[in-house]
Write a structure and sequence with these properties.
Rossmann fold; 302 residues; globular; 8 strands
Length: 302
Amino acid sequence: MRRSWSWYVVAGFLLCLAASPLAAQDAPVLEAHTLEREGSALHYWLTGPEDAPLIVFTHDAGLDYHTFDPQIDVVAQEYRVLVWDVRGHGQSQPMGDGFTISSAADDLLAILDEVGAEQVVLVGLSMGSYISQELIYQHPERALALVSIGGTPLIGNYSFGDMVGLRASTAAIDVLDYTGFRGLAADTSSIVQDVRDYAFAAMEQIKREDFRTVMSAIADSLRGEEGYNIPVPTLIVYGEHDDLGPIKSMTPGWAERDADGIYYVVPDAGHMANRDNPEAFNPILLDFLHGVIPAAAVTESE
């Protein structure tokens, strides 16, 4: 059964503080870095071969870089990997001089400039997909490809009902008891109990007002533009049991526009498909990366 935008957005605002006891037990060893920018200390981490092509992972609202623990070691065997905490999330505190999807994309661009990365593959979960799409929209020359997990097009044909529902959902965080809000978010984020527990624990560290700001920013970022197409190879993925919002209904049309009509449904997975079933998700991701970055390019960079 299709759920409302409210459920979709709530499910997106999840997870993961870097110091959380629920972080993966065998988390990869990462090089920690900090960039002071516009009132926030942006934390990011690097691993993998230094000269290999860079794959950048951006988490969903309420999460942090641990969102991609099941992918980091696997991808870092062949590629350079960058994960980061979006401002106001995880270790990137405080939120600083406001928050929009565009300003978050600017933050990511500043990080890429600091590490000297001219072109990257952008991987994003839900809000992370929107930030990645915004960066591509503003600076298409900086992207090699896009991977969207549990997302919808930043620039698409949203109905009036979709937009009203999304904006109305901003009020849910104030209407509901915050513990109840966290429980709802955790329950709708995943079909795996450990991941739900992880989400519930992480939500305790997120300020109510920061959620409100992020939710409004997502609503403000979605827009239409006649004739727009994402100008780089695009992989669209969602979980089999991700029944939140218009993800399933919008994906076929989005894939037709931007991904040659191809998209993937991860079995036995909910909104966080990469965490719910990494055994199924990781091969899809690696196959796509091998397609957009030929093996020779990886070998030559080593």
